[in-house]
TrEMBL record:
The lineage of its organism: Eukaryota, Metazoa, Chordata, Craniata, Vertebrata. One of its GO terms (cellular component) is microtubule. GO terms for biological process: microtubule-based movement. Residues 521-530 have a biased composition (Pro residues). This is Kinesin-like protein. Residues 302-329 form a coiled coil. Residues 1-31, 435-534 are annotated as: Disordered.
C-alpha cells in the first residue's frame, strides 16, 4: 500500500510539523482562533483505498461510498464527502502526532494560556493510544506523558498513565501549571491548565442494523457525547449566547476548556477500514462541526502580593544604600532619611520660630523630608500665631463684625466708637495702632535691613581678615529702634542736625572729587574696611554721607514728633475715658433719682452737660491729633525710604571707591573713567573684583563655621584670601583685556 509505504514522508513533511502559524508565538487577547482539528487514521492492513482518499496537502480527506447496487436506478443518495481539516495524520508516529497536535498547546500553557486537547472517535480507533500511549514501550508513549515531560514534571507520569479507562467513560487529565519567574524578582505569575480529554467511544446505536440507516442520524451510545455535541454546536454559532454546559458532567467539567480563552485541539481517531466507514463519516462530521468553534486565548496572569512587597522592600534597601554611597561621596555623612520623630519635628518647629523672629538667619537644607517638614511647621506656626493674635485681641477687646450694623450702633451709643467710626484706643497707647511702631521698625524688618547691610560690609570685611568689630555700629542706624523709646545712647540721634530739607533723590556724585587727587600713594596692603570707610566718608563719600545724615536726622525728628503726638493722643484718650466714666456715673445717678422728662426732651443737670461738652471737645482734639499722627507716619515712611536709599548708595559708592583705591590697577581705572574705553555701568565695578564668586561664597560660608571655633585658622584664612584675590585679579584682567580687544 502506498500509504503504508511512505511513512517517512509523513513523518518529516513540513506540513504536519507545526500548528498553523497563528497559533504559534503569543496569541494575544482579542485574537479569535478556530479550534484545530486533526484526523488520525489507525494503521491497518485492510485500508480501504477505494473509499478513503487524502488530499495532496494532507489537510483534507475524501470519503467515497460505493453505490448500493441493491437500491435500483433512481438513487440520489449522496456517495461522496470531502472534509477539510487542519491535518490528516496517517501512519504517523507518536512523535509526529505530539509535535503536530500538542506541542504548541503545551508550550503556550507554560506561558499562561489554557489548552484543551480532545480525542474523539469510535471505540478501538486509537484515542487512548493517542492520549496515553502504551506503557511498555517508551517510544509509544502518548500525549499525556510527553506533555508532562515538556512541562518538566516527569515524575508524576507513572501514576497517571496506569489509569485504565473504559471505552464507555470519559477520561479527563488536567495538568495545572503555575509558573513563577526564575529570577524570583517578578511578582507577576501565571496560572494555566491543560485538559487532555480521552472521550468515550462515539459509536452510534444501530450500527449493526441495516445499511439503510447509515446516513440517518443515530444517537450516541453515550448520552453525554450528544450533550457535548450540542454544546459544541452552540459554541460554533456566534449568535448563540447560552451554551448548554450544565446538561451533563462532561460538558460541565469542560466548561472552561471548551472554547472560551483556550487553545483547543480536536483529534479525531478513525479506522481506515471499509467496515467502519459509517462511524468514520460520523466522526468526521463531528470534526467539521468542531471546526466552526472559535476561541479567544488569553493569559491568566496573577500578582503575588507577598512577593511584590518583598521586591519593593528589596528595592528600598538598595536605594537607601545607593543614597548612603551618594552622601558619603558628597560628604554628607550624617544625613538621615528615616521619617522624622517628634523631637526632630519640634526642633524644626523651633528653627522656624527663630527664623520668623529673626534670630536665625537661615534654615539649612538637609533633605527632602526635612524641607517638607519645614514648610509644614511654617504652616503650623502661622496658624498658631493667627490664633494667638486673635485670642490676644479678644482678651483685650470686644471684636465687632464690621457688617453687623446693629452691634456697631450699639457700641456707638455706648461711646466706644467716635463719630467717624474710629475705635477709641486703649489708655496704654498700645491698642488700635496708636502707639504701634512704624513698619520699618518692626523686628522682622529690622533684622532684614541689618542683614543686608551686614552682608555687604561683613563679606568684604571678612576678606580683609578684620577680626575687630566692624564699624557697623556707626552705620547701624536707628532702624532698630522704635520712635516711642528713642535711645540717647544712639550716636546718630545725638549728632543729628535738624534740617527741614526734603531730599527726593540723591544726585550722582562726581567721581573725581578734588579730595581724591590728594590721596596718598596706594599702600601695599589695603587698610581694613572699617578704617577705609571712615576715610571714604571724609573724602569722596562726604557729600552722600552728609545727605545720609541729614535724612536720618529728619527721620528721627519726625519719629520724635510722632512719638510725642502718640503720647498726647494717649493722654487725651485717658481723659476721655475719665470723662466718660464720670458721665456714666451722672447718668446712673439720674436714673436712680428718676428721670425728668418734658415733652419727650430729656432734662439733665449742669454737671452732666459740662461733661458732655468736655467729651465733645476731647473728641475733637483726638481727631486732630490723630490726623497729625497719620500725616507724620506717611512722612516717616517716606523718610525711611530715603534713608535706606542713601545707605545703600553710601555702601555701594564705598565699595567702588575701595576697589578702585586698593585693587583695580590705575591704568584700568583710566579705562573705567568717563570717556575711557569702558563706560561705567558696562562692567559693574562691584562685580569686577568678585568674579569667581561661587568659590568665594563657599569659602566664606566655611569661614563662618570654622573661624569662631578655631581662631588659629585665621592665618590660614588670610593667606587663602590673598591667594584668591590674586586669582580673581588675574581673571578679571584677562577678561577685561579680551573685552578691550573687541
Ligand atoms: P480507543 O481508546 O479509541 O478505544 P485504543 O487506543 O484502546 O482505542 O486502541 C485500540 C488498540 O489499537 C490498542 O491495542 C492500541 O494499541 C492499538 N492502536 C490504536 N492506534 C494505534 C496506532 N496508531 N498505532 C499502533 N497501534 C494502535
Ligand atoms: Mg480508550
Amino acid at each position: 500500500m502506498d500509504e503504508e509505504a511512505a511513512p517517512e514522508r509523513d513523518k518529516n513533511g513540513p506540513k504536519f510539523h507545526c500548528l498553523p502559524h497563528s497559533t504559534q508565538g503569543s496569541a494575544r487577547m482579542g485574537t479569535r482562533k478556530k479550534v484545530h482539528t486533526f484526523v488520525r487514521v489507525k494503521p491497518t492492513d485492510d485500508f480501504a483505498h477505494e473509499m478513503i482518499k487524502y488530499g495532496d496537502d494532507n489537510k483534507s480527506i475524501d470519503i467515497h461510498l460505493k453505490k448500493d447496487t441493491r437500491r435500483g436506478v433512481v438513487n440520489n443518495q449522496q456517495t461522496d464527502w470531502s472534509f477539510k481539516l487542519d491535518g490528516v495524520l496517517h501512519n504517523a508516529s507518536q512523535d509526529l502526532v505530539y509535535e503536530t497536535v500538542a506541542k504548541d498547546v503545551v508550550a503556550q500553557a507554560l506561558d499562561g494560556y489554557n489548552g484543551t486537547i480532545m480525542c474523539y472517535g469510535q471505540t478501538g480507533a486509537g484515542k487512548t493510544y493517542t492520549m496515553t500511549g502504551t506503557t511498555e514501550n517508551y517510544k509509544h508513549r502518548g500525549i499525556l506523558p510527553r506533555a508532562l515531560q515538556q512541562g518538566e514534571t516527569n515524575r508524576i507520569i507513572a501514576s497517571h498513565t496506569m489509569n485504565k479507562n473504559s471505552s464507555r467513560s470519559h477520561c479527563i487529565f488536567t495538568i495545572y501549571v503555575e509558573a513563577h519567574s526564575r529570577t524570583l524578582s517578578d511578582e507577576k505569575y501565571i496560572t494555566s491548565k491543560i485538559n487532555l480529554v480521552d472521550l468515550a467511544g462515539s459509536e452510534r446505536l444501530g450500527k449493526s442494523g441495516s445499511e439503510g440507516r447509515v446516513l440517518k442520524e443515530a444517537t450516541y451510545i453515550n448520552k453525554s457525547l450528544s450533550f457535548l455535541e450540542q454544546a459544541i454546536v452552540a459554541l460554533g454559532d456566534q449568535k448563540r449566547e447560552h451554551i448548554p454546559f450544565r446538561q451533563c458532567k462532561l460538558t460541565h467539567a469542560l466548561k472552561d476548556s471548551l472554547g472560551g480563552n483556550c487553545n483547543m485541539v480536536l483529534l479525531t481517531n478513525i479506522y481506515g477500514e471499509a467496515a467502519q466507514l459509517e462511524e468514520t463519516l460520523s466522526s468526521l462530521r463531528f470534526a467539521s462541526r468542531m471546526k466552526l468553534v472559535t476561541t479567544e486565548p488569553a493569559i491568566n496572569e496573577k500578582y503575588d502580593a507577598e512577593r511584590m512587597v518583598k521586591n519593593l522592600e528589596k528595592e528600598l534597601a538598595l536605594l537607601k544604600q545607593e543614597l548612603a554611597i551618594h552622601d558619603s561621596l558628597a560628604n554628607r555623612t550624617l544625613v538621615n532619611y528615616d521619617p522624622m520623630d517628634e523631637i526632630q519635628i519640634a526642633e524644626i518647629n523651633s528653627q522656624v520660630r527663630r527664623y520668623l523672629e529673626g534670630t536665625l538667619d537661615e534654615i539649612d537644607i538637609i533633605n527632602l523630608r526635612q524641607i517638607q517638614e519645614v514648610f509644614n511647621q511654617f504652616r503650623v506656626v502661622l496658624s498658631q500665631q493667627e490664633q494667638e493674635v486673635e485670642s490676644a485681641l479678644r482678651r483685650k477687646y470686644t471684636l465687632i463684625d464690621k457688617n453687623d450694623f446693629a452691634a456697631i450702633s450699639a457700641v456707638q451709643k455706648a461711646g466706644l466708637v467716635d463719630v467717624d467710626g474710629h475705635l477709641v484706643g486703649e489708655p496704654d497707647g498700645q491698642g488700635f495702632g496708636l502707639g504701634v511702631t512704624p513698619f520699618s521698625a518692626k523686628p522682622g524688618k529690622k533684622s532684614k535691613s541689618k542683614k543686608t547691610f551686614k552682608e555687604q560690609l561683613s563679606s568684604s570685611a571678612r576678606k580683609e581678615g578684620a577680626s575687630s568689630p566692624v564699624s557697623g555700629k556707626e552705620l547701624d542706624v536707628s532702624t532698630s529702634k522704635t520712635q516711642l523709646t528713642p535711645s540717647s545712647k544712639e550716636g546718630d540721634v545725638k549728632d543729628m542736625t535738624i534740617r527741614e530739607r526734603e531730599t527726593s533723590s540723591i544726585e550722582p556724585l562726581p567721581s573725581d572729587s578734588p579730595k581724591e587727587e590728594l590721596r596718598p600713594p596706594r599702600p601695599s596692603t589695603p587698610p581694613p574696611k572699617p578704617v577705609a570707610f571712615e576715610d571714604f566718608k571724609n573724602e569722596r563719600g562726604s557729600e552722600i554721607n552728609r545727605i545720609f545724615k541729614e535724612n536720618k536726622s529728619i527721620l528721627n525728628e519726625r519719629r520724635k514728633r510722632a512719638s510725642e503726638t502718640t503720647q498726647r493722643i494717649n493722654a487725651i484718650k485717658r481723659e476721655m475715658d475719665v470723662t466718660k466714666e464720670a458721665l456714666n456715673f451722672q447718668k446712673s445717678l439720674r436714673e436712680k433719682q428718676g428721670e425728668y422728662e418734658n415733652k419727650g426732651l430729656m432734662i439733665i443737670d449742669e454737671e452732666e452737660f459740662l461733661l458732655i461738652l468736655k467729651l465733645k471737645d476731647l473728641k475733637k482734639q483726638y481727631r486732630t491729633e490723630y490726623q497729625d499722627l497719620r500725616d507724620l507716619r506717611a512722612e516717616i515712611q517716606y523718610c525711611q525710604h530715603l534713608v535706606d536709599q542713601c545707605r545703600h548708595r553710601l555702601l555701594t559708592e564705598f565699595d567702588i571707591w575701595y576697589n578702585e583705591s586698593f585693587f583695580i590697577p590705575e591704568d584700568l581705572q583710566v579705562a573705567l573713567k568717563p570717556g575711557g574705553s569702558i563706560r561705567p555701568g558696562m562692567v559693574p565695578v562691584s562685580r569686577i573684583m568678585s568674579l569667581g564668586e561661587d568659590a568665594q561664597d563657599k569659602f566664606s560660608q566655611l569661614q563662618q563655621v570654622l573661624l569662631p571655633e578655631g581662631p588659629d585658622s585665621v592665618a590660614f584664612y588670610n593667606a587663602k584670601v590673598k591667594t584668591e584675590q590674586k586669582h580673581n585679579y588675574l581673571k578679571t584682567m584677562m577678561g577685561l583685556q579680551q573685552a578691550h580687544r573687541k
